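Incident log, support desk, overnight shift.

02:14 A customer reports that sequence design results differ from what the structure should imply. Their input is reproduced verbatim below. On-call engineer (initials T.W.) acknowledged and began investigating.
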């Protein structure tokens, strides 16, 4: 059984999608459709933007969404998913791939999500940090002493990203180093994603999601908030809204997919390395490859 997985922020790269655009008329049409839906030429930034430009939330999210789904649409391999999952933003790509959302509706939601998150980031100085080499339970216990820092991304055993205020993150990093973390690195990001700091964005996104038509997916989607499979459109919508302020349970999602019978993973979009690397840390026995 094959699980198709879709990356979130961090998998972008300079020149992303240019080869797909230039692959023929179908590739060009795909990117031009995305430009038309967005109302601006995202493809120009994807193909020619600098590393710094591609890090901007309002650019990164639609760019990765379009790149992931271009890969699916233009791949020579038959796309027949048994299950799908996406890391953070990637959950929207997964839902389109599983035909729960149309490409146009998915891209509009991603645009709304990115702009809402960008605005939320600008309200209060906040950030994230990657903690490597401590058990999740140890990190969670230490963070109980903080009002403004929470677990954000359960990426793999021994790798947990935390979110919070700039002051809180700096203090938490020191405490986690003292507790034995091999690395505790403040990340260069726009804000505290997957934390209560995203509450203003959650309100905006909830309205957009409620106004969008979701169908039952053609296969189960393992959602970040629960780490479990969902097929009910109402449950999917609820979890998508909760995802902005709740942690990404990627470790739990991958473990559950394997327990449910997934025997290989294919990463769709981005640089093709981020999720494959995390999956290998979660279970080295499961083969992984990139769709592109």
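02:41 Re-run completed on a clean worker. Output:
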């Amino acid at each position: 059984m094959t699980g198709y997985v879709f990356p979130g922020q961090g998998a972008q790269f300079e020149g992303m999608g240019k080869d797909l655009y230039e692959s023929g008329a179908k590739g060009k049409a795909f990117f031009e459709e995305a430009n038309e839906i967005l109302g601006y030429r995202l493809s120009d930034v994807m193909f020619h933007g600098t590393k710094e430009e591609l890090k901007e939330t309002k650019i990164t999210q639609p760019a990765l969404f379009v790149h992931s789904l271009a890969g699916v649409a233009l791949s020579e391999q038959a796309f027949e998913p048994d299950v799908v999952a996406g890391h953070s933003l990637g959950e929207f790509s997964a839902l389109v791939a599983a035909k729960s959302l149309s490409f146009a509706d998915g891209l509009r939601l991603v645009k709304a999500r990115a702009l809402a998150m960008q605005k939320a980031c600008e309200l209060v100085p906040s950030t994230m940090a990657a903690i490597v080499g401590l058990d999740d339970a140890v990190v969670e216990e230490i963070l109980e002493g903080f009002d403004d820092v929470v677990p954000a991304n359960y990426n793999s055993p021994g790798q947990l990203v935390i979110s919070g205020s700039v002051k809180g993150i700096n203090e938490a990093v020191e405490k986690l180093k003292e507790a034995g973390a091999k690395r505790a690195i403040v990340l260069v990001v726009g804000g505290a994603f997957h934390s209560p700091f995203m509450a203003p964005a959650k309100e905006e996104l909830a309205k957009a999601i409620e106004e969008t038509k979701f169908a039952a997916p053609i296969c189960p989607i393992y959602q970040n908030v629960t780490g479990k499979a969902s097929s009910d459109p109402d449950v999917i919508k609820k979890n998508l809204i909760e995802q902005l302020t709740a942690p990404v349970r990627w470790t739990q999602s991958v473990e559950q997919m394997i327990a449910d019978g997934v025997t290989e993973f294919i990463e769709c979009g981005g640089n093709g390395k981020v999720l494959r690397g995390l999956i290998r840390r979660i279970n080295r026995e499961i083969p992984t490859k990139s769709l592109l």
